[in-house]
Design brief:
heterodimer, A: mainly alpha, 71% helix, 0% strand, B: six-stranded mixed sheet, four-stranded antiparallel sheet, globular
Chain lengths: 272, 391
Amino acid sequence: MKIFSTRKGVFVKNNKSYLDIINNTLISLIPFVILSVIEYSILQVYNNASTLYQVFKPIIIFLILIISVIVLEKNNEQINKNYIILQSIIYALMININLNIMIIITIGILINILTIKLNRINTVPIGYLLMMIITNNANISYTNIIFGIVSIVIVLMSIIYLSKYAFLKWRIIIFYIITIVVGVIILYLISKKNYIVLYNIILYKYLFKVLYLSIDMPSTPVTHKGQITEGILLGILSIIGIYYNIFIKDVVIMILLINIVIILLKKLKIKV
Amino acid sequence: MIAKTHNKDEGSKLNKIESYLKPKLIYIPLEDENNNTYRHIVKQGDYIYKGDVVAVNNKLNLKMYSSVSGYALYGSNKLIKTGKKVRCIVIENDFKEKVRKNKKTITYTKEELIKLLSKNKIELINNYLINDTKLLIINISNNNSNNNIIIDNYTEEMLETIDNIIEILEISKTILLVNNKYKNIFKKLSSYSKTYSKIEIKLTNNIYLPGCEEKLLNKELNMKSNNKVAISNIYEIHEIAELLKTNIPISEKIINISGDGINNNTNIKVKVGTLVSEVIYYIGGYKNIKDPLLVIGNLINGTSVCSDDLIITKDIDSIYIVNNKYEKNSSCINCGKCIEVCPSKISPLSILEGNSKKIEKCTECGLCSFICPSKIEVLEVIKQIKKKANI
């Protein structure tokens, strides 16, 4: 007779762990980081419009944010460090690099602390909102069409990579784009104005932010219906913002608004 | 349904079935996995025929049968599938396989067959098979190796049994749902299609575990579940085949013993009531692995048992000896994978958050626990909630 230890639960688990998902998501961001460094460092040097500080500025921002995570997270086993690093990189990719580096880093560290404290809340939009309040403009705007096209290619590559190796709530992106396209057509038919929003939307600043939303699991809906609704709502808000030219046209602010709506729906025990 | 399978033909990997049909002692537990207790009706020294009733539960009209002929010995305490140690009757096998003279093959009417199945606790088929069943589906999509081994070794017998069942129960059509991975099984079954015209063989890319019957009907036949469709599996057909052939309850069982901790992964035919320790010793014993677990059933929703001093009852199909790879869980990340895989279309996530609406629909398949990237034992939490709420 042989004695065995016993335990409850499942005896075989899916290979894909939370850590793998986060790590693969981090890998998917590498092209964006490279693109950002090229745009703000290498190209600046090429155009003779840069100091040495300006060249290394994006790298300094990434490094300081990541080091801050490691220091802040030193004794915290509850939250995954890589998740906070992910949030930091996304934040660094979204902000306006021309701002004062101290403001960028202070808000970055602040959102890291918030992420640790408010485990399941998406904190990047909060930092982004603060940035907007302080500077009155936090957008990255690509003047160069080539960068726009490169970023679209990278976003598409990321979508494929994330679908295969990580986790992507792709319904949000698809329904967001569909709503925008339909909305722009309707706007054109109503006002006969030539909105060049499609160009803006498919550029880095919009699509990357929606991609970011769809990889952010804690604050997005879990059901298919919820994800579709979120994509459509984002699209509608974008269209309203574009039409009235108000601040909510920025996707990150809309993400923040939608997150609040989702938290409220959850409080009302509505399955989203 | 849990996953799409690849098109690669894996049927050729099938093993042959070994036999261990002459154990010295047979153990009949006086309690079953549903905690029903039985009163023994044989005394020490009584001669028992194969198929004789040795214990009864008068309240629920349940019976325990002997799988061999021989003499009743002293009582003993052994483990059963649930991991509980229970009292049991021990029968010393005389290896003569004697059956009572009245136990001969008879022809059944529809009512008699339904009664017979019910009497022998052939549950799934009996749950579905009511008087006006028009379609019988035999689900072989589950990639449990036993399914394919039984079909591979007993093809004609299985088809003949299915043909008998549909004739007796006046069922107009039967569909055998075979997984795309096992194309040689499909070919073998298809070669009999002219002989058995009422039996249709269908290939599927999907795997349907027990509890996914509704999904099977929706996806494969575009039907909603209704009382006119019966869904069974190959184990039950195998059991019915033996029942119809010998007119005595199931006395032998094909089980699969495998895992990292076993020297020879084997499919073996054993007598119901044999001890697991004996069978494992017979097939070559254990491998020396660190912290092994003995799991009864499948690795997703099976039970881990503390010892191999365990009786093989007729509801045990597989035994695994595996490494105890416990993974520490982290907090829920709201990915929603558990909702995506749930065959009952409920939200395990909202159950974890305290909203236990529709919890009674949970079939305890364990897919939510399997898929969870945060390694949360979702099923265990659901089981606890169900237990508290007496569901």
